[in-house]
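Tokens as discussed.
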């Protein structure tokens, strides 16, 4: 059993490092790129499609798995949508831009009003909160993957589950980084947020391996409601913030439409083969580990 515990620690450390590096690579890639107006609009359009897919194909199904209620899932999703919508209405309509573009379009050097900057921040902050919540759930999958490897004492027994978490992590980080760039956030701020986001899944995985899964599994309905609420916020960000602005662009209509479909296709692909199947099986495997470890 001690050997199993040691093996679990080794596999978990390896998977946590890979997840962290994957998120950093995806998020900082957008940081180092110089996004002009056209590239920024393409990126935002792709993120809008990705967020639509994440909300409807990832968050909503996982929410239902947790709370076992279609009505409650959609009620919380509607609540999340309305909350984000009215927050954005409070801070007025705004346009995404890059730092270079704002200088060209404002030769007088006038600064964007504080309410508009706050409205910009709502989108990336809401996205970060939603993806971070889902990253906590990823921690369960990552720990279960390491547990399977330790139990079977063979390379790659749980690699499929771990790869599912690792593969979709860069795209979540890219979405956050893109929206922060569109909001005019400084590079250092974007790097810090991506660094903290990259830590969420590894930290959650380590806590679950130490026994935090007992608290996590004690309130599945709460987790499902929270995921559904985040699904609503994602839908609002995509439909009421990102897509309407792209709709008014008379140029690059074909390119922006293709980018939107590409983001949606990516979400579908991640749901099909690149995303962990978050079911109670993960918690059951962790319970088995704690029983064998403590006896």
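Sequence:
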């Amino acid at each position: 059993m001690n050997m199993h515990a040691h093996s679990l620690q080794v596999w978990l450390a390896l998977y946590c490092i890979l997840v962290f590096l994957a998120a950093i690579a995806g998020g900082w890639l957008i940081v180092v790129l110089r996004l002009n107006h056209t590239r920024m609009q393409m990126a935002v359009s792709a993120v809008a499609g990705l967020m639509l897919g994440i909300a409807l194909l990832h968050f909503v199904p996982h929410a239902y798995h947790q709370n076992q209620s279609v009505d409650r899932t959609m009620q919380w999703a509607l609540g999340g949508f309305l909350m984000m919508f009215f927050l954005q209405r409070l801070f007025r309509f705004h346009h995404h831009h890059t730092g270079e573009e704002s200088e060209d379009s404002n030769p007088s050097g006038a600064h964007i009003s504080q309410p508009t900057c706050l409205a910009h921040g709502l989108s990336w902050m809401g996205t970060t909160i939603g993806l971070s919540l889902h990253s906590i759930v990823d921690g369960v999958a990552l720990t279960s993957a390491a547990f399977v490897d330790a139990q079977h004492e063979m390379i790659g027994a749980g690699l499929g589950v771990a790869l599912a978490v690792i593969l979709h992590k860069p795209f979540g980080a890219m979405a956050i980084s893109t929206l922060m760039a569109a909001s005019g956030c400084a590079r250092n701020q974007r790097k810090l947020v991506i660094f903290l986001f990259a830590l969420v899944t590894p930290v959650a995985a380590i806590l679950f391996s130490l026994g935090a899964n007992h608290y996590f599994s004690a309130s599945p309905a709460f987790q499902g409601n929270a995921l559904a609420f985040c699904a609503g916020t994602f839908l609002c960000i995509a439909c009421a913030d990102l897509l309407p602005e792209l709709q008014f662009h008379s140029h690059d209509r074909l390119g922006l439409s293709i980018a939107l479909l590409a983001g949606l296709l990516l979400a579908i692909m991640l749901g099909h083969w690149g995303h962990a199947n978050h079911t109670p099986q993960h918690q059951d495997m962790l319970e088995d580990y704690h029983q064998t470890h403590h006896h």
